[in-house]
Specification:
This protein is α+β, with helices and mostly antiparallel strands and about 700 residues long. It has 20 helices and eight strands.
Amino acid sequence: MGAGDTSTRARRRAVPWLVLALWVGVLAVVGPFAAKLADVQHNGVTDYLPASADSTQVAKLQEQLPGGQTTELVLVYHRDRGLTAADRAAAQRQVAEVAGRHALTGTPRGIPSKDGTSLMYPVATNEPGTDEDKRDALVEDVRQVAHSEGGLTVEVGGAGALATDAGKVYQSLGGPLLYTTVGVVAVLLILIYRSPVLWLVPLVVAGIADFLSMGVAYGLNQAFGTSVSGQSSGIMTILVFGAGTDYALLLVSRYREELRRVERPYDAMRAALRGCGPAVLASSGTVAVGLLCLLAADLNSNRGMGPLGTVGVLCALVAMLTLLPALLVLLGRRVFWPLVPAYGSTPKARRSLFAAMGTSAGRRPLTVLAGGAVLLGALALGALNLPGAVKQQDSFVDRPESVAAMETLAEAYPERSAQPMDVLTPADRADATLAAIRGTQGVAGAQKGRTGDGWTEISVTAAAPPQSAGETATIERLRHDLDDSYVGGPSAQQIDLVDTNARDRLIVVPIVLVSVLLILIVLLRSLVAPLMLVAAVVAVWGAALGIGGLVFGPVFGFEGTDPGLGLLSFVFLVALGVDYGIFLMHRMREESTRGAEPVAAALTALRTTGGVIASAGLVLAATFAVLTNMGLVQLVELGFVIAVGVLLDTFLVRTYLVTSASVALGRKVWWPGRLSRTPDPVPPERQPEPV
C-alpha cells in the first residue's frame, strides 16, 4: 500500500470525526443562548400589530403615560332568572376585594343590564405595565377572587383577560408543539425507512438543528432587536423538522443509491453530496429568500417571522449537509439494516408506483395537464366561500372564560359596547377632542383619563356591540374627524390587522414571486421551467385556499378567517412547494445532460425522485398539520392550508402536471438554455450503417 493510499484512508477516517468535534464545539457555545430564547419571547399587543397603524401608536403612547400600559378587565355577574339582592351584595364584596388587592385606576362602578340578568364592573390597573407575566398573574388572581357561587355565574373578560388566554395558547407552542412534531416525524421516518436505527439519525440531527436555531434566534434578538413571538418560534421549529427531514430524505436516498456503486461509504457520501447538494442548496435558498421577503411586511408578527423562519431553514440545511453525512459515514452500511445496500448489488426489481404514474402522464401529457388544471381551478373556487375576518371572540378553538364573558355582555347589553376604545390626543387639545368625540354619531359616552408626556387618554364607549359594523363605522368616523389623534383599542386593532394584511399581500406577494423565479432561473439555466414551476405552486396555493373555504365554516365551524392566512400560506406554499420542483427538475436536467431524450429524462427523474418527494411531502404536511391541534383559529387554518397544499403539490402537481408539462414541451422546457438546442439522440436502429 502506497503512502497516497494511507493518507487517503486517514483523511476518510478523520473528516467525519472532525465534523463531529466542530459540532460539539458549536453546541457548547450556542447552548447557553438557546435556553434564553423563551425569556425574550413576547406575545403582547404591539408584537402582532402593524408597525404604522393607529392602534399600535396608541399602545405605545399608553406605555409612556403615568403608570404605563393599562390592563382593562370586565367582571361579569349573571343569573338567567335575574340577579338577586344577595347576588349584588356578593358582586360588591368581590369587587371590593379586588380593589383592595390591586391598585385600580378609579373606583369600580357596577352597570346593570336593562333586563336585570347581568351586572358588569369594568376595572383597570396600571400595575402590570408591559410585563406579560404580571398581567397573567393579575388576571388569575382576579379570577380566583371573582368566582361563581350559589348559582351566580361570574366571568372575567376584557382585553387583559383575552390577552392572557391567548398567551396560554402561544406558550403551548413550546413544549407540546415540539413533542408532537418529533413524534409525528419519528413515526413517518420509521414507516419510510423500515429500519430500527436509520430513522433515529436524521431525527437526532433535526433536534440538534432546532437547538442551534434557538441559539441563533436569541443572538439575532440581542444584536438586531429581531422580535420573537410564540407564533414565530413555533413556525421556526416546524420548519427545522419539516424542511430538515426533507433534505435528509433526499440525501439518504441518494447515498443509498451511491453505496451500490461505490465501495467505501466516505466516497459514496461525497458522490451523494455532489449529486443532490446543489438541489438541496437551491431549495433551501428559495425558502430562505421567500421568508425574508416578509421583512417588507408592515405587520410586526409577519415581519418577525421572516428572519426566524430563515434561521430555522438554514440551521436545518447546515446540519443535514454536515452533521448527518458525518454520522452516516461513521455508522457505515449497517445503519440501513435490515435493508443494507451491498456494493455492486442492484435494488430489488419491483413495479414502481411513480413509474406507472409517469407512464400515464407521458402517454397523454396534454390531456393530463388540462384535466389537472381544471381540477385545481375548480378547487380554487372554494376560496369564494371563505368566511370574513375572524372576530376576536371567535379566534379560539375552545371557548375560554374571556370569550364567554364577551358573549354574555353582548347578549345582556345589546345597546352598548362593553369594550371601550382608546383615543390618544395632544394634551393641549384634550377638551376640544373630548367635545368632538361626544358629538360623533355612534358614541355612547367618553371620559378623559390619564395625561402625561404631552398626551391625554380618552376612553370612548360605542353604542354598537364590539366588532360590529356599527362600531367599525364609529371608529372610522373618529379617525376621520379627529386631527392629530390616534384611535386604538381591541376593535381598532382588528380593523388595522385586516387593512394591513391586504396592503402586505400587494407588496410581499410580487417580491416573493420575482425572488423565487430568479433563483430558479439561475439554478435551472432556463426560463420556461422556472415559469412552469412558479405557475404550479401558485395554482396549488389557490386550490388549498379553496379547500379551506369548503371546510372552515361547514366542517370546522369557524366563524371567520384570519386576515393573514392568504399571505402566510402563499409565502410558505410557494417557497416550500418549489423545493419539490427543484428536486424533480434538477434530476431531469441531470439526466438530460447525460444524453437522455426529453421523455426518458422526465420519466427517469420521476421514478428516481418520486418516492423521496412523496416521503418528504408527507413529513412536511404532517409537521404543519400539527398546528391544527393548537387552540387558536389562525394557527389551525394556517396549518390546514399548508398541509393540504403540500399534499396537492406532492401527489398531483409534481407527479402528474409538472411531468406531463415537461413531456409535452420536450427540450423547449430548457429554453433558452443550451439543453433546449441539443438535438435528440438518434435511435440505434436509425443510425446509418458504418462505411
